[in-house]
From TrEMBL:
The lineage of its organism: Bacteria, Pseudomonadati, Pseudomonadota, Alphaproteobacteria, Sphingomonadales. It comes from Qipengyuania atrilutea. The active site is at H117. Its cofactor is Mg(2+). Belongs to the NDK family. It catalyses: a ribonucleoside 5'-diphosphate + ATP = a ribonucleoside 5'-triphosphate + ADP; a 2'-deoxyribonucleoside 5'-diphosphate + ATP = a 2'-deoxyribonucleoside 5'-triphosphate + ADP. This is Nucleoside diphosphate kinase. It holds the Pfam family NDK.
Length: 140
């Protein structure tokens, strides 16, 4: 299987509880390599742009408020079939539905404050990586 890249965010609920390392260990244990990482305070403009696909959803405003409520860690992850591998270790959006051993089962607080974002396709991964990183910041 091909080595590919995906984009991840450790969300404010996780950075607030000092879980950056614990979440990253789960990613690494799942066979993903962190090839870029930075801790940032997202601006409202960035959060609205990043989640523009959800603009019409009723929870859009709350989601943007949540994503700017504290620092996040944006990451590029590399591994075999990275998008699926990351989605598998993240677990279901709603932690109540997430499988044992997944990040969201172990750490998420709610369907909104669910600790991690992960791209859902290779195409979106490329767009999302470019949203936050220059090529020179990614060292595989
Ligand atoms: P994901 O790909 O598993 O992150 O899920 P989605 O793309 O469907 O949703 C994006 C993000 O919006 C989720 O990770 C949650 O943080 C948030 N979200 C999803 N569904 C809900 C909801 O019903 N209510 C609220 N408040 N937030 C939600």
């Amino acid at each position: 299987m091909a080595v590919t890249r995906t984009f991840s965010i450790i969300k404010p609920d996780a950075t607030r509880r000092n879980l950056t390392g614990a979440v990253t260990k789960k990613l690494e244990d799942a066979g993903l390599r962190v090839v870029a990482s930075k801790r940032i305070q997202m601006t409202r403009e960035q959060a609205e742009g990043f989640y523009a696909v959800h603009k019409e959803r009723p929870f859009f405003g709350e989601l943007v408020d949540f994503m700017v409520s504290g620092p996040v860690v944006v990451q590029v992850l590399e591994g075999e079939d990275a998008v699926k591998r990351n989605r598998d270790v993240m677990g279901a959006t709603n932690p109540a539905d997430a499988e044992e051993g997944t990040i969201r089962k172990e750490f998420a607080e709610s369907i909104e404050a669910n600790s991690v974002h992960g791209s859902d396709s290779e195409e979106n991964a490329a767009t999302e990586i470019a949203f936050f990183f220059d090529d020179s910041e990614i060292v595989g």
